């Protein structure tokens, strides 16, 4: 651990550093020397634990009274890990791989667990998306449109996008995503995205595993879902309000066991209250606008119509508090491809019953 309790840190502050063991490479000594496997041991010039460099001779065999020599050189640098007389192979452990863990956001260290990690606390605004790809990054918030439903092409991406968190409206086109990636933007944030665009951008289809480890330069966060979906007015206005501020973002998403949501965190400056301090905490009530955050209605918007007091048994067998909510009109059109159960009729204005833990309240 490299930080102390109470220390102020920034997104790039390294809080922990370690060396991960390097990979083990195989040197086929018997094949290189042209000898039997059981003969290799007497031709070795190194032993377990010895350090070797790339190109170093690790074994040598002489034949015909020393007139002919054959050598085996290591292609790798590292330390001799093992020798197998059964296979005639030498194992070289590669160089240790340095691993650094950064603070991710600007804040103060409130807890340090030696050998495990640190907890960084910050006050400010938190915006959670519905889906994302890409790892942890940070950058200045720049809004590219005044229309939360805008479709933005490559011409909307500024030349100075490097290191910026670019906020769009309804959707970025595939060409816009590729231009932002090429210029080195930290992140793109929009209401929706086409799954076909995402697949082409990544070069493969996203599975059911956790996202966030994709090999891309620009993290992508979607706040509403798949399709041409305008960004929620409250989310859009908050991001507009925070323009010019430094934000930390993560696209890591998991929608099955153990929900993980992509996020945008904007720490408040000293003496400045976070956005959440300027409004009363939202309460779940009849008429509340909510977003469903579990399957089979993941990402859909609805309005709470009833809050039964009685506990109910759900499909998993658990007994929980539930709510009744009416799905927004038109959700079946926008999300039908991702929610086929809504295409069997009565999808528009459909009332559903779900556990209260399966929704998040949308700010008015």
Strand content: 35-45%
Helix content: 10-25%
- Number of structurally distinct domains: 4
Q: Terminal Cα separation, in Å?
A: 42 Å
Tally of helical runs: 5
Number of strands: 28
Shape: elongated
Descriptive report:
The structure is a single chain. The protein is mainly beta and 364 residues long. It folds into four domains: 1-19 and 98-122, no CATH class; 24-93, OB fold (Dihydrolipoamide Acetyltransferase, E2P), CATH 2.40.50; 123-275, no CATH class; 289-361. It is 10% helix and 37% strand. It has five helices and 28 strands. The protein has helices at 29-33, 174-183, 195-202, 233-241, 331-335, and strands spanning 8-9, 14-20, 24-28, 51-52, 57-63, 68-73, 78-84, 89-93, 97-102, 107-113, 117-121, 124-128, 131-133, 137-143, 151-152, 164-167, 171-172, 187-193, 219-226, 246-250, 263-267, 289-292, 301-306, 312-313, 319-320, 322-327, 351-355, 359-361. Strands 12-21-20-14-16-18-19-13 form an eight-stranded mixed sheet. A five-stranded antiparallel sheet has the order 27-26-23-22-28, with no helix packed on it. It has a four-stranded antiparallel sheet with strand order 3-8-7-4. It is elongated, with a radius of gyration of 28 Å. It starts with 7 loop residues before the first strand and ends with a strand.
């Amino acid at each position: 651990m490299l930080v102390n309790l109470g220390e102020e840190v920034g997104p790039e502050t390294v809080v922990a550093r370690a060396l991960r063991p390097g990979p083990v490479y195989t040197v086929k000594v018997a094949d290189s020397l042209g000898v039997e496997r059981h003969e290799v041991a007497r031709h070795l010039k190194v032993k377990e634990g010895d350090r070797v460099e790339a190109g170093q001779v690790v074994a040598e065999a002489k034949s015909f009274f020393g007139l002919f020599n054959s050598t085996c050189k290591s292609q790798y640098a590292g330390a001799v890990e093992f020798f197998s007389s059964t296979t005639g192979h030498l194992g070289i452990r590669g160089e240790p791989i340095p691993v650094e863990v950064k603070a991710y956001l600007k804040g103060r260290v409130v807890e340090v667990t030696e050998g495990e990690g640190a907890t960084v606390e910050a006050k400010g605004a938190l915006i959670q998306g519905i889906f994302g790809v890409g790892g942890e990054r940070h950058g200045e918030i720049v809004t590219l449109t005044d229309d939360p439903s805008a479709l933005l092409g490559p011409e909307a991406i500024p030349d100075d996008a490097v290191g910026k968190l670019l906020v769009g409206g309804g959707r970025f086109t595939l060409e816009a995503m590729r231009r932002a990636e090429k210029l080195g933007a930290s992140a793109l944030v929009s209401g929706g995205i086409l799954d076909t665009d995402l697949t082409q951008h990544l070069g493969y289809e996203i599975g059911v595993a956790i996202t966030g480890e994709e090999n891309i330069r620009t993290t992508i966060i979607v706040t509403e879902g798949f399709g041409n979906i305008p960004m929620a007015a409250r989310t859009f206005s908050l991001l507009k309000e925070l323009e010019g501020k430094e934000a930390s973002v993560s696209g890591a998403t998991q929608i099955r066991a153990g929900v993980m949501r992509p996020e945008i965190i904007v720490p408040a400056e000293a003496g400045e209250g976070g956005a959440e301090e300027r409004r009363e905490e939202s309460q779940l009530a009849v008429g509340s606008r909510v977003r469903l955050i579990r399957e089979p209605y993941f990402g859909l918007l609805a309005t709470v119509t009833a809050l039964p007091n009685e506990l109910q048994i759900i499909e998993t067998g658990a007994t929980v508090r539930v709510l009744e909510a009416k799905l927004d009109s038109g959700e079946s059109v926008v999300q039908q491809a991702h929610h086929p159960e809504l295409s069997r009729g009565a999808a528009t204005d459909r009332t559903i019953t779900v556990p209260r833990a399966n929704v998040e309240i949308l700010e008015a």
